[in-house]
């Protein structure tokens, strides 16, 4: 009786170690797959670094920068619209006088138009 | 299973190092795929740490005492809920919680900006992985949660009964979420400085993260205060303890940042100030974590060995030095585009608010770290107590509340004096009326409390006036009826009106603080059954003693062997108000005090009993005299004659003896007015904050955008 | 005054005010602070009327309660000089013999009186009053 019990226990322990080893390998594999996915897809799209693919990469990067500038301008535009609305609310709740409001409103509108123009230029 | 956990930590460190390299390489060479890979490293880190955390949680729930940390902080008799929470009651477990939460929040943040802020986000990724890597390295080299002992102990030491309260389950995760969220604006701030890009998109993004940090940290702090008040035996909610202060400091700078960011957005000013605030908030959050971990300051919370102190000091030194260097080297890019137009403007009020908040933070910082400072300067360690803190924070808090009432009533850029005078008359009227009412009621001897009540009345007046006028203006524009106009007003101007609600909540909270500190009646005395005492306007009578023994199947899940208490009858002018049942639970120790003594010789825990109300709380705690001669004789006799298995019989005798011949017990009784308003105020603050940050539905945004564009064009045509 | 000069003047005034306030704060902190001393240090340096933060461990078998007053002795962490303290006020739950405490005391006559509600007991880092009583081979 005594001889069997420790052997069963040690078999269970070995089984657990094997399970842990398998889980570990699986985890490492998943991590490597997830982390390297963008690198692998980039390699698929542009194998090697010939002049042509470098040119494509430069074009892609320019497009990316244009898109980034567009998001920045859109954020600036939203902020400016909010300012215009805030100024109007300030006026209507009696915190700004008519003259002050007209002056500030004009300034903000001009700034907004400038942002809109730059956005349209980017689109073209 | 501990092996899996250890592997996870090593893998996590490897992922951190790879991610830092990939992100930096990606941003320096412009190769987007490497930046993307670096971002995915953060996701992978979150996954790996989730596995590690799950391994630890499962070990706790399964009572796997091979794990040292499980054996040290849990036991078979610890209820399941507290076994799950015991993960973060230890040094190692809380390091893992911190790293795990950081990886989760960082993944969310980077996922949300995956299509924008490319360069800034890549640098931010590197910073976040660096911080996470630091904590993972601490776990691998200094304090691993996955250390095991063989042979496996059969039973663990059990969770400290002081921590067996429901708040233990939520306060640390909330607080740690707040701390880790503070590092995300820090990372994006560093990223913006490195990428030399501080613009509208960055502002919009960082505001969201800063707000999330502010919200979670604030909730964590309030929960800590509530835990202290409702579940610990001293009856207070704030003690200027080092660890409490450490969590408040980043919250103060975060609040300052949320305000001054608006100025940067509108006028392009205060860029250096804002970036410094962001960096300071993140650094203070790391310092707060350090305080709790290192035991360098005396605090009721401080635990953890001195071994962690040195790495943390190095990290903080790196953060501070790096921040200073970045700000100084980029100061050209941080020049203001405009200047302050007028002192009578909302910008000026916001700047004043920032000054007060940073001033508060400085006072608290100085007082908290004073033991270290005095030791460094004079060789003697000395500390300042709550009276010193109160002396400086109370006036600053008054000014803060006052400013929060002035701000909503003043316009941006420049307000006209005539308008201002007209707008202030109602709030001032409220304040004066309050002053008169309080003086008439005869409470003149507490000037600071009176001042706070008047300031709060001022805030109430100005916020109320804003809502009323805004609804009226909207109704005039759109023809909507009153309540509907109010609703749509708030919906279309969430940031403004949500902010006003936050200010109202802060005022309410401080009313509660002022009233409960200045007008409290407390009493500490010994009572025998039948005796009564007066506390404030209430009479408290000790009706009879109570004694409960934990049955075999502990339904109350407290795990205490013996619980002695009292039934108290609270009445006012002869009318019964409440019945309170405070008690003290005596827990088992591991052994060494005799067979009977060990059953009750462990950590005693006070269970307070209170009657909460809108106008006041009646709070009670009891310290029964377990060392009374009659009881001591029973314990000693039991130790001599009973074996550990039979010892529980003596506990029954103890309980019966206590009920029949109760010795005088020490009672701590407090009547605190308006305490409930502290928690109500907190809820209002967080509700208002949520309203402020809630994104407007995209349909509304599009309508607004289209209309604004056409109006802008019309304006240009007019000009 | 032109706007630039006005702005500089404002800045100078604000900064000076900040410096003055900060100095006041720093100065009062040194005079309001209580030095932290162990029992052996306190015995050598004590001056009547000044308050001190006494840090040490509670001596076993020294804890007695007489009505509202709790009497106990505090000794150096390494053992040695023990100082008896008469304390009134809240006693934190973790307080017991052998635990590290911090209590603000003043010397009155020949006795050390603990300041009301100033007793702090250090939370033990690991809740372990004794090793588990049973160990079994797995």
Describe this structure in words.
The complex is a heterotrimer of chains A (124), B (719) and C (138). Chain A is built from three helices and no strands. By secondary structure, chain A is mostly helical. In chain B, strand 9 and strand 10 form a beta hairpin. The mean pLDDT of chain B is 87. Chain C is built from two helices and eight strands; from the N terminus they run αβαβββββββ. At the B-C interface, helix 3, helix 12, strand 1, helix 13 and strand 2 of B face helix 1, strand 1 and strand 8 of C.
Name a few traits of the molecule:
heterotrimer; A: 124 residues; mainly alpha; 3 helices; 89% helix; 0% strand; C: 138 residues; alpha+beta; five-stranded mixed barrel; disordered C terminus
Write a concise synopsis of the structure shown.
Chain A has 124 residues and is mainly alpha-helical. In chain A, 89% of the residues lie in helices and 0% in strands. In chain A, helix 2 runs antiparallel to helix 3.
Topology:
The complex is a heterotrimer of chains A (124), B (719) and C (138).
Chain A (H helix, E strand, L loop, with lengths): L3 H42 L5 H42 L5 H26 L1
Helix pairs in contact in A: 2-3
Chain B lengths: L1 H28 L2 H30 L6 H6 L6 H6 L5 H22 L5 H24 L24 H30 L4 H32 L10 H26 L3 H24 L14 H21 L16 H33 L3 E2 L2 H21 L10 H24 L6 H32 L3 H11 L1 H25 L2 E7 L4 E4 L2 E12 L12 E11 L2 E6 L2 E4 L10 H4 L3 E4 L1 E4 L3 E8 L5 H13 L6 H13 L4 E9 L2 H18 L4 H21 L1
Antiparallel strand pairs in B: 2-11, 3-4, 4-5, 5-6, 5-7, 7-8, 9-10, 10-11
Chain C lengths: L2 H30 L1 E4 L1 H7 L5 E8 L5 E3 L2 E7 L6 E7 L11 E9 L2 E4 L5 E2 L17
Parallel strand pairs in C: 1-2, 5-7
Antiparallel strand pairs in C: 2-4, 2-6, 3-4, 4-5, 6-7, 6-8
